Amino acid sequence: MQVSDSPVNAAKCLCAKCPSFAGLPGFYCARGRARGKVICAGCKCRECAVFNENSLTDEYYCDHGEEGVEAVLKSVRKQKAEWEAGAATDETPAPADPEKKG
Ligand code: SF4
Ligand code: SF4
Q: Is 50 in the same domain as 92?
């Protein structure tokens, strides 16, 4: 669900009190990922009213953006499947494996 970037929702956001907070734009589930590098040190999203009111299921929106990490992984998996099905040309490098660590 798209979270409304409203003043009421923004006032409920716990990001500014979070150890992972990485500055603007804040209220990341509605406004997208942080402009700076995120050091993931805990996430308060699941304690937040906006999280429950909007049936959110993800965390670390500061790092992954408003679409959430699952949407990012889904997109990469789709690209990988298309490449494996021969949709890409031989010159196209294989997409990164989202399940591979490191
Ligand atoms: S999205 Fe989660 S991890 Fe990132 S600053 Fe907000 S509460 Fe913290
Ligand atoms: S769910 Fe996370 S990013 Fe969204 S308003 Fe709450 S603390 Fe902020």
A: no
2 is a domain residue: no
**pTM attached to this predicted model:** 0.74
Q: Domain residues for 87?
A: 68-102
Ligand 2 centroid–CA 28 distance in Å is 6
**Ligand 1 near 59 CB (within 6 A):** yes
The response to whether residue 14 sits with its C-beta less than 6 Å from ligand 1 reads yes
> Total structural domains in the chain?
2
Ligand 2 lined by 14 (C-beta under 6 Å)? yes
Q: In this predicted model, what pLDDT tens digit does every residue of 58-88 receive, in sequence order?
A: 899 999 887 766 767 777 788 888 888 886 5
Q: Can you say whether the dihedral through the CA atoms of 94, 75, 70, 26 is positive or negative?
A: positive
> What value, to the nearest 5°, has the Cα angle with vertex 34 and ends 32 and 38?
135
